[in-house]
Write a structure and sequence with these properties.
Blueprint lengths: L12 H7 L9 H21 L1 H9 L23 H4 L12 E4 L9 E4 L1 H18 L8 E8 L8 H9 L5 E12 L2 E4 L1 H14 L3 E5 L1 H13 L12 E4 L13 H12 L6 E3 L2
Parallel strand pairs: 3-4, 3-6, 6-7, 7-8
Antiparallel strand pairs: 1-2, 4-5
């Protein structure tokens, strides 16, 4: 777990405590009160350290002190994701930035996010506690991975690819394949036939399989299997699907989760209870 301290242990004390709660789904009067204190702290932090957010809060007549209940948190001024495609906004000194990530840029513009070591570390720790809660941390059970995301390239800052590499730490890697193959020049291309072939090999091998990444690409692969009238696969029942990210430019072809989960169970043999979405 993350042993780093927040940038200001006093002003972010409740935030640090909230991020280290051992039960990720604890919800009672005590945890709700802690959540509200943490939200007051983090709003005050951004107002004090980010001129843009300070002006936005003033424009919205928002002050952290008005947050007294969980419901009050709906009044926190939001920032539309598209804003980050045009502007770099930080609430920490640039010298404290340890990780700089971007969105995939499917619309031609990339959002940018900047993290200090503590912020990224506590976020990863919270994910680790969720995986442990569900029994998905299996250090003694190697698995095969098919990641429906970008094949790693030296120097890449794509956040979703970074996240999926992190998620692959919770079970030892036997083999790993990628749906978006690097084709040179920093460009990637979706390879549905490669995905199908990879899963066919994994099915023969019999180890648990973990499918991570964008739901759109997994759905496209399943649709291709249907169109080709291939035999459904029966992957190890301890396999896991964990989605992260939206449908992007394929939003018009998005299907309801229930329909997608049914297709996965039908074509890959992965039980519905082992299909989750972290987006």
């Amino acid at each position: 777990m993350n042993a780093l301290s927040p940038p200001d242990p006093v002003r972010l004390a409740a935030t640090a405590e909230l991020c280290t709660l051992p039960d990720p789904y604890c919800q009672d009067a005590v945890s709700d009160a802690l959540f509200v204190r943490a939200m007051r702290e983090i709003c005050a932090w951004h107002i004090a350290h980010c001129p843009f957010y300070s002006r936005l809060a003033a424009l919205r007549n928002f002050t952290p002190e008005r947050l007294e209940t969980v419901a009050d948190c709906a009044a926190i001024p939001p920032i539309h994701a598209n804003f980050f495609k045009q502007h770099e906004v930080l609430s920490i000194d640039r010298a404290a930035v340890t990780t700089h990530l971007t969105s995939s840029g499917t619309t031609g513009q990339k959002s940018q996010m900047f993290f200090d070591a503590w912020s990224l570390g506590v976020g990863q720790d919270m994910v680790a506690r969720i995986f442990a809660r569900y029994g998905w941390h299996t250090p003694d059970q190697p698995v095969n991975y098919l990641i429906f995301n970008y094949e790693p390239v030296t120097g890449s800052k794509v956040g979703t690819a970074f996240t999926n590499q992190f998620l692959a730490r919770f079970a030892p890697v036997n083999r790993v394949g990628y749906a978006l193959r690097h084709i040179g020049g920093g460009r990637h291309e979706y390879d549905p036939f490669g995905c199908i072939h990879t899963l066919q090999k994994y099915a023969e091998e019999g180890l648990p399989v973990r499918l991570l990444g964008f739901p759109a690409f997994l759905h496209a692969m399943l649709s291709r299997m249907q169109a080709l009238e291939l035999e459904p696969l029966r992957l190890n029942p301890q396999s896991l699907v964990f989605f992260g990210g939206g449908w992007k430019k394929d939003a018009q072809r998005a299907v309801p989760k229930t329909e997608l989960y049914t297709l996965i169970e039908e074509w890959l043999g992965i039980p519905n209870l082992r299909i989750r979405d972290g987006y």
